[in-house]
Specification:
This protein is α/β, with parallel strands linked by helices. The protein is 42% helix and 21% strand. The strands form 5 sheets. A 7-stranded mixed beta sheet has the order 12-13-14-11-10-16-17, sandwiched between helices. Strands 7-6-5-8-9-19 form a 6-stranded mixed beta sheet, with helices on both faces. Strand 1 and strand 2 (10-14) form a beta hairpin. Bound molecules: nicotinamide-adenine-dinucleotide (NAD).
Length: 454
């Protein structure tokens, strides 16, 4: 398997994919190792993860450079991702004792009742490339702390990162029979579906997530899916600082070249401020510095996958063919690498793919609305349900919109944001189950009910 730098299209390295025999062998190692790992006291497992957290610090520069080389995010964003991953790890090391401790729940006459939390067993984590440290930590860390062994299948676009994670976990003292990396493309992920895993945790596209859920359904094991989004953002007409809001929203669109599951994917603006908003937004978009992701002043790097360049160009031409107008950007950059200009389209509507299908790139459509009711109707017009955002001076007015959203997350005056303390979950085509928060600690264990009569 070739590892390609998306900013230069040059080969970084060639890596051997795991074959079926290798994957079965790794599974066997994890199966044998899991009871031993579960027998390690919870406090010791947490200490080993703390050690892993410590090891990230001196290695950050090298890890960030490797991440930028293989998937193209600007180097300062790679550093931010590592910092974010560290604080997520800390959340889990701080909170897990409390949420995994046995709970004495009730006493009924002579009978005492308690809940104990036990690991699921060997879990598969088939993962995405866009934030490999963040989405990786969401699963790997609570799974290991919970006493599971983990078969981690990084995306083929973030394999080097997957190997770094394994190296540092082992260095921290996590045994190799508690954590293994499955190296390869989709077919390797697919092979894991046939192995007798005790649970599947997937981060990736709706299409792959759905096929995984269907394939493993008859096993009756837990399946969690963190999938895509078409996240809407509504700008109300009571804003004081339209320029600042436009800058905020732009960042929510283009950060990580728009390749965030919770990136702002469609914008609705109240007619009273529409003209001023789009003018400021397009102006700030034109000023973004696009280019070499290793340059610390670059704001937008390349896309990670070659095929996505054409996909975005098709979305743009479909929209333009149906009457949209390009206000900024619109082209592929004339240089090596998978670069698409940050693009702003107006005169858009929901007959256009741009407003319905996940773009996963630095492009966005901005639609004018006449009322909050119209905004709500359009925001709800999606099969996805990951996040939705409202910008307004009034919390009451924003809250009335947020309450109507059928999404796992809502934002007031912010967007494209994840907190370790809050549950991260998508509805409908955006997923199934929850990571992060105490619920994302409990997602990796199963309760056992004890009825104890003295
Ligand atoms: P993808 O579905 O193409 O691939 C995800 C993983 O699945 C990769 O490791 C891939 O090798 C593997 N895979 C591919 N085909 C498979 C198959 N048939 N069986 C088993 N495994 C298979 O997704 P991607 O391009 O890596 O990620 C981008 C998507 O992920 C976007 O839709 C994004 O919104 C979503 N995402 C969601 C979240 C979230 O928290 N909700 C976070 C990050 C990314």
């Amino acid at each position: 398997m070739d590892i390609i730098n998306p900013a230069t299209e040059k080969k970084i390295m060639e890596i051997q994919e795991d074959d079926h025999h290798g994957l079965e062998n790794k599974f066997r190692i994890l199966k044998e190792g899991q009871p031993r790992w579960a027998a390690v006291p919870l406090s010791t497992r947490i200490d080993l993860i703390r050690e892993f957290h410590q090891l990230l610090e001196p290695n950050k520069g090298e890890l960030a450079a490797s991440l930028t080389a293989e998937m193209g995010k600007p180097i300062w964003q790679s550093m931010n991702e590592l910092k974010g991953a560290q604080s997520r790890i800390q959340f889990f090391t701080d909170q897990s004792q409390k949420w995994l401790a046995e709970e004495w729940i009730n006493r009924e006459d002579a009978t005492r009742e308690k809940i104990a939390y036990e690991p699921l067993g060997v879990i598969a984590n088939i993962s995405a490339w866009n934030y490999p440290y963040l989405v990786g930590m969401n699963v790997i860390i609570p799974a290991l702390i919970g006493g599971n062994s983990v078969m981690y299948k990084p995306s083929e676009f973030s394999t080097l990162t997957g190997r770094h994670i394994a190296r540092l976990l082992y260095q921290a003292g996590v045994p190799e029979n508690a954590f293994q990396v499955a190296v390869g493309k989709g077919a390797v992920g697919e092979y894991l579906l046939g192995l007798p895993m005790d649970a599947y945790f997937f981060t990736g596209s709706y299409k792959t997530g759905k096929s995984i859920a269907e394939r493993v359904a008859s096993k009756l094991v837990p399946v969690q899916l963190e999938l895509g989004g078409k996240d809407p953002l509504y700008v109300m007409d009571d804003l004081e600082d339209i320029h600042k809001a436009a800058g905020d929203v732009l960042e929510g669109v283009v950060y990580n070249s728009g390749q965030s599951c919770c990136a702002v994917e469609r914008i609705y603006v109240h007619a009273n401020i529409y003209d001023r908003f789009i003018e400021s937004y397009a102006e700030q978009s034109r000023q973004l510095k696009v280019g070499d992701p290793m340059d610390p002043t670059t704001q937008v790097g390349p896309l990670s996958r070659k095929a996505q360049v054409q996909f975005l160009q098709e979305q743009i031409s479909d929209a333009v063919g149906k009457g949209a107008k390009i206000l900024a950007g619109g082209r592929k950059l004339d240089r090596p690498g998978y670069f698409v200009e940050p693009t702003v389209l107006v005169n858009v509507n929901h007959s256009m793919n741009l407003m319905k299908d996940e773009s996963f790139g630095p492009i966005v459509g901005i639609q004018k609305v006449e009322s909050d009711e119209e905004a709500i109707r359009l925001m709800l017009d999606s099969e996805y349900g990951l996040t939705a955002a409202v910008y307004s001076r009034s919390f009451e007015r924003a809250e009335a919109v947020m309450k109507k959203m059928d999404t796992g997350t809502v934002y007031w005056n912010c967007c494209d944001r994840v907190s370790a303390y809050l549950p991260w979950s998508g509805r409908r085509h955006s997923g199934l189950g929850t990571t992060l928060s105490y619920q994302g600690i409990r997602a990796f264990v199963q309760p056992k009910a004890y009825h104890i009569r003295d």
